[in-house]
Amino acid sequence: MALLNFRKRDAAGAEPGAGAINPQVSAFLRNYSIEVMPRTADKVEDFRALLPEGTRVYIAHIEGTPIDDMVRTARRLAGDGFSVMPHFPARIIRDRATLADWIARYQGEAGVDQALLLAGGVADPAGAFDSSMQLLETGLFDKAGFKRLHVAGHPEGNRDIDPDGGMKNVEQALRWKQDFSDRTDAQMAIATQFAFDARPIIAWADGLRDAGITLPIHIGIAGPAKLQTLIRFAIACGVGPSLRVLQKRAMDVTKLLLPYEPTEVITELAAHKAAHPDFNIEQVHFFPLGGIKTNAGWAIANGGDSARPANETGAHAS
């Protein structure tokens, strides 16, 4: 199905009245994914008018969201031709029976065969699980024939996992997940928390590769939004040193009231990828904190609506 309202471009790939699209950025945005929640998805009249056909859409499962709402959103997106990847937050899943029920409902009602497994930002687990590794160890995803399993990554650490602000426990968990990928047929990737500075992202990704963790990385990027909104989300989500990028911008009165756009961080990462083709960041994953329509429009304007390849890259990809 063709996209409904993508703006026309000239032969050079630029929109009328706009500057030429950076080919490195366009290449880096190829096959990007985006995240929604049921309540935000309900406000979108037609996703097909905003996103390229086949876009992977993650559905965030926030504590308190009924599974009925999650499955309904998955069914709608799948029916529109998108690749649906719901979250499975370990700490809000009561027990193995609940996990099996969720998997069966997503599969039976929406044809879902992929998932993002994460601990979930809840202090006290609801039941038997408190980590994505425990979810993987159940074997239920494999039994159900799920083909793709993504796990969370934290380029700037995660104080829920490493209270001292280090990376020891986070890296140990990724080593375990790398081993799981090596010994199974799961197609796996690391989908990360968002960050705002390319330098620590590059250092983190290179450090993982040096440590033998070769799972492809889908880097989390915050989409265009008001600066105050981003700072609030960044603090709530535990974003680390790169938060200084936003704080510095907030001190500049000429930029304070202007919306933030991820142009700088994506341009730097795209240039690094072009210079180092083996760089293990393979895709961009957008958090549309300023709205799905705004994020989708930014991606389109920067060449992110290019056709998707028939086969994805990734661990154990066919």
From TrEMBL:
<dbReference type="InterPro" id="IPR029041">
    <property type="entry name" value="FAD-linked_oxidoreductase-like"/>
</dbReference>
<keyword id="KW-0560">Oxidoreductase</keyword>
<protein>
    <submittedName>
        <fullName>Methylenetetrahydrofolate reductase</fullName>
    </submittedName>
</protein>
<dbReference type="GO" id="GO:0016491">
    <property type="term" value="F:oxidoreductase activity"/>
</dbReference>
